[in-house]
C-alpha cells in the first residue's frame, strides 16, 4: 500500500480521503485500542498454557497441542502481529515458525517520547517434543523502534483499519538493517526510507542504542525543497520499478531495501549475531 510491498496498487487517493475522514485522535484510538485488546488476552493465554513441568516449561508433546498453542499465540498477539511465516519440514508435519509483533504498550523514553518495540519469536515443534527449551523457543527484541507519532501517522495516512499491516512495510526495513549495517555507529543522525508514495523518517537514539521511525511524509505533499532532496532517490526507484530504499542525506548514499519472499527471514543464527536484535529471556513461551 505504501509501496510495491503491499498489494492493491497506489493508495494516494485513499490517503487524502482517509485524512478527511479520520482525525489524529481517532488514529490514536485505533492504536491504543489494538494494544489494549492484546493486553487483555494475556491472562487467558497464560492460564491455558501455564508451565506444568519441573523445569517450568509447558508440556507440549502432541501435534494437536502444538498447533493449538501456536494458534493461541497468534490470537494473543492479534492486531499487533506484523509478520508470520511457517516453514514445513520435509517429510514431516514438524514446523519452524517466525512471528513478529509490536509491544502491547509504549515505553516512555526521555528525549524521544513514547515508542513501541518489535518482538521477533521463533518456534520449533521438533525441539518442543524433545524438551529442548532453549532450541524450541527464542524471543528477540529489535533495536528498531516505532514512535507513537509514526504509528498514528501510518494509520491516519494509509487508511489501515488496524496496525498489523504496518509490518509489511516495517519488517523489510528491519531485515535490511540486519543485512546491511553492523550497528548505528556509522549511520547518519537522521536518514530516510523512501518508497513510491511516501518517505519515512529514521533517527538515531543514544538512549535506546538504536533507531526510531519517527513519522511519515506523503510524496504528493512535498514542498520544493523536499522534491529536490529526494529527486535522486525517486529516479533510482523508477529505474528499478519501484520498491523502497534507504537514503542518507549528508552522503547522498542509497541502499536498496529488498523485497521479502515467504521464508524464514531472520533465522535464529542470524539473530544471535546481529546488533539489531537482542535476546529476551522469558520463563514462559509468548
From TrEMBL:
It comes from Aeromonas caviae (Aeromonas punctata). This is Uncharacterized protein. It comes from the Bacteria.
Amino acid at each position: 500500500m505504501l509501496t510495491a510491498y503491499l498489494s492493491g496498487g497506489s493508495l494516494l487517493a485513499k490517503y487524502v480521503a482517509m485524512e478527511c475522514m479520520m482525525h489524529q485522535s481517532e488514529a490514536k484510538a485505533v492504536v491504543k485500542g489494538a494494544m489494549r485488546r492484546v493486553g487483555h488476552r494475556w491472562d487467558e493465554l497464560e492460564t491455558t498454557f501455564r508451565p506444568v513441568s519441573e523445569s517450568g516449561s509447558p508440556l507440549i508433546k502432541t501435534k494437536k497441542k502444538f498447533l493449538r498453542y501456536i494458534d493461541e499465540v497468534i490470537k494473543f498477539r492479534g492486531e499487533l502481529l506484523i509478520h508470520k511465516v511457517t516453514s514445513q519440514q520435509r517429510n514431516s508435519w514438524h514446523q519452524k515458525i517466525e512471528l513478529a509483533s509490536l509491544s502491547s504498550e509504549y515505553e516512555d523514553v526521555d528525549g524521544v517520547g513514547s515508542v513501541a518495540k518489535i518482538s521477533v519469536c521463533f518456534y520449533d515443534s521438533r525441539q518442543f517434543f524433545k524438551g529442548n527449551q532453549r532450541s524450541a523457543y527464542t524471543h528477540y527484541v529489535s533495536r528498531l523502534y516505532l514512535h507513537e507519532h509514526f504509528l498514528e501517522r501510518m494509520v491516519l495516512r494509509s487508511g489501515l483499519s488496524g496496525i498489523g499491516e504496518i509490518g509489511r512495510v516495517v519488517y523489510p526495513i528491519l531485515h535490511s538493517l540486519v543485512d546491511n549495517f553492523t550497528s548505528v555507529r556509522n549511520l547518519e543522525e537522521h536518514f530516510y526510507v523512501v518508497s513510491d508514495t511516501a518517505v519515512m523518517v529514521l533517527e538515531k537514539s543514544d538512549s535506546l542504542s538504536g533507531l526510531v521511525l519517527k513519522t511519515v511524509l506523503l510524496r504528493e505533499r512535498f514542498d520544493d525543497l523536499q522534491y529536490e532532496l529526494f529527486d535522486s532517490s525517486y529516479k533510482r526507484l523508477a529505474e528499478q520499478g519501484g520498491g523502497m530504499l534507504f537514503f542518507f542525506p549528508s552522503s547522498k548514499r542509497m541502499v536498496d531495501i529488498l523485497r521479502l519472499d515467504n521464508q524464514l527471514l531472520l533465522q535464529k543464527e542470524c539473530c544471535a549475531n546481529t546488533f539489531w536484535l537482542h535476546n529476551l529471556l522469558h520463563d514462559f513461551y509468548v
